[in-house]
Specification:
This protein has 1 helix and 15 strands; from the N terminus they run E-E-E-E-E-E-E-E-E-H-E-E-E-E-E-E. It is an all-beta fold and 192 residues long. Pfam families: FBA_3.
Length: 192
């Protein structure tokens, strides 16, 4: 049985490690975590094909594991799935069809209690914005801004460098070009 430990800092002293009780299967964290209202959430593999949502409540030091909804195609993998904060709640953002269909699927954890209720929202880009994602650049979700806009960054540094900012509330995406990056940071060829 795996053990889980938490480092407890103490003011003006050296902190110490404390064992946290847990009675569930071993897991391997796979994505950067998201802290919302004192709870840290992250995705973790429990086997080769399935992942779960792990949460750690900082106040109670309670560690819990929740089954996450499968994608509509039945795939339990988390390829191109990110954790974001959406409306103050932890949300799975599935961007598997962003490039080919201009579509994002959000699964919001509405009730983090015993029932673990998820809602689903599908966002589809306006046809006049599809050119922003249907390019030779693969974008990765980098989280949300303080105003709740989704930030997408290119997987590879290419010139001219830009990011995409997707306002999920208004279903509107815009391109933001970043200037002043030295030419030697870019790949050898440039994309048009």
């Amino acid at each position: 049985m795996p053990e889980h430990w938490v480092f407890v800092p103490k003011p003006h002293e050296v902190g110490s490690w404390k064992k946290v009780p847990s009675d569930f299967c071993p897991f391997i964290p796979v994505r950067r975590g998201q802290c919302i209202n004192g709870v840290t959430y992250y995705l973790a593999w429990i086997d080769m094909y399935n992942s779960v949502l792990v949460s750690f409540d900082i106040r109670s030091e309670e560690l819990t594991m929740s089954q996450i909804p499968r994608r509509d195609d039945g795939d339990g993998s988390r390829k191109n799935v990110s954790l974001i904060e959406y409306g103050g709640k932890v949300t799975l953002l599935d961007s598997n069809h962003l490039r080919d269909k201009g579509m994002l699927v959000l699964r919001v954890l509405e009730d983090a209690g015993i029932n673990k209720e998820w809602s689903k929202k599908t966002m589809v880009l306006h046809p006049y914005q599809l050119h922003l994602v249907q390019v030779d650049i693969i974008f990765n979700v980098n989280g949300t801004s303080q105003s709740g806009k989704l930030v997408l960054i290119p997987q590879v540094l290419v010139s001219p460098f830009h990011i995409l900012c997707y306002d999920l509330q208004r279903n509107d995406m815009r391109k933001i070009e970043i200037k002043g990056i030295p030419d030697n940071w870019f790949r050898k060829h440039k994309l048009d």
